[in-house]
Amino acid sequence: MTESTATKPPPDGPRLARAFVDEQHLLDRYLDGDLPYKGAREFEQWCAIHPQYLAEQRLADRTQASLRLLEAAGRAPDLADPQVRWWRASWLPIALGAIAAASLIGLWTAAAHGAWLRDQLTEARARLAHGSMRPPASEQIVRVSPDRGADSGAASIALARSPARLVALRIRMGYVRADRFRLAVDKHGAGRALELDGLTKDSNGDLRITFNASALEPGEYAVRVEAMPLLGRPVADGWFTMSVR
Predict the structure, then answer these.
(1) Cα–Cα 20 to 30 A to 154, which of 55, 117, 171, 196?
(2) Distances in Å between the alpha carbon of 25 and those of 11, 55, 57, 64?
(3) Last residue of a domain, one of 78, 97, 125
(4) Are residues 146 and 239 in the same domain?
């Protein structure tokens, strides 16, 4: 018999051979408590089927002699079942299986929760990127001459979100010598809604901005046009209000 065969655990009861029992010294290993739990139970079943084996080993005589020797040495015989090492206990596979099942359930729950969070994040990003914007069905040209003072409040435009349309806004800035501008849009009670840099005038002196009106939330907006000189700070040169309904 090869070395790999010799180290295998004993097979099931009906296939357990006498030669295997002898070669593996199953009786000595059983008495020493070196057999695993399953192997010990299978060896017990095999001995129940083959009682002549125990008779041949004179196990009863050896047991009585061992008891007499212990009594002669003044030591009481310990007839309790030998203590099984913890890694050979019958409850260990059950505990490991329960831990593995709990780990799998935990991993599955974490994966499902992570997928849900990813879906929620994707949906939130889509809402943030697109908001309630709808495809425009038409285009509207809106012209405005901004106020030259911040407190005038005369210049204003009104936009409708529905039906959705592209608004081609023309801001007349011919009265300013600067060529580069910045547009700042603040919603009343909410703060900065939009800021556009690098705007330049066309040949008519207008700033051209095109946007989807449905992308704006309803409310009142304050728009400020700032000239951007090559040196120095931006200079506010135009103001108007924008009402979105």
Answers:
(1) 196
(2) 14, 16, 12, 21
(3) 78
(4) yes
Q: How many structural domains compose the chain? A: 2
Question: Would you state the structure tokens that stand for residue 96, as one six-digit string?
Answer: 């490991």
Place 242 in a pLDDT band, splitting at 50, 70 and 90.
very high
Closest C-alpha among 197, 198, 137, 148 to residue 172: 148
Contact 186, 160 (CB under 8 A): no
Whether 20 is covered by a domain: the verdict is yes
DSSP state, 160? -
CB under 8 Å to 19, separation ≥6 — which residues?
none
Residue 95 located in a structural domain: no
> Rounded to two decimals, what is the model's pTM?
0.45
H or E stretch at 211: strand 206-212
Is residue 8 assigned to a domain?
yes
Task: Enter the DSSP assignment of 15.
Answer: G
Question: What's the CA gap between 186 and 192, in Å, rounded?
Answer: 4
DSSP β-bridge partners for residue 172: 206
Partnered with residue 240 across adjacent β-strands are 223
Q: Closest Cα to residue 219, out of 173, 159, 163?
A: 159
pLDDT tens by residue, 118-142 = 877 776 666 555 556 778 888 999 9
What are the pLDDT digits (tens) for 3-29?
Answer: 444 444 444 444 678 888 888 888 888
In a domain, 167, yes or no: yes
